[in-house]
Amino acid sequence: EILTHLPGHPWRSHLRVFEEVESTNTLLKAMGREGAPEGTVLIADRQTGGRGRLGRTFLSPGGTGIYFSALIRPNVPPNQIMHLTCAVAVAMCDAVEETCGLRPGIRWTNGLVFGKRKLGGILTALCVGAAGTVDWAIVGIGINCAATAFPKELEGIATSLASVTEVPVDRYALCAELVRQLEYMNRDLQQKQRDYMAFYRQNCVVIGKNVHLIRGDEIRSATVLDVDDQGALTVRLQDGQITTINSGEVSLRGENNYV
Length: 259
Description:
This protein is of the alpha+beta class.
């Protein structure tokens, strides 16, 4: 049914749908190493081993979410696509708004939120070839669509599109719109970096907020000032020092909640 929403789309012939996989990202990485073409998209109804940032488990039950991975081949040095996760977040917001009529916020660096609760997440991975350019990049996306109840550890943190909109979500239409928006993003990733980052800042819910920066057992309080064009966070620490934080360095939490 997803294909009926994508007549003539350039990625249409590279789309595969599974009832269950361990992880769409893991499978697509293997396919990338074997030469899978740009625009290869894997979508699963459920995952048995979904992962988020820092190796955390990403809950992926059947019938309730979208578990989606797409492969692109940028062929540029890694430092030219440091903003990839941010651009994907903007594309996800565009897809959700087009399909569901609401625009989520973005929690730096890779979370979609509505209010103070998480709707979805992004996990990207790069493979750099011998020439020093990105051979392939995997864009992994998970979106809570229909869940109305969550495990105890996620209560008060997670929500779903159905909970927010109070109407059923057409997962097929949303998957198709994600394909469209990611293909647009892939074409514009280099030329429109500043535009994507401007949209990212407009939708980023942590700018101006007081947050906790968590690195291992160390927790520091800070105020978020901005996100730069590479996707790094600019913060003011409690001692007044202004510093830049990259996404792989810390976890971020709101002072009283997820956001």
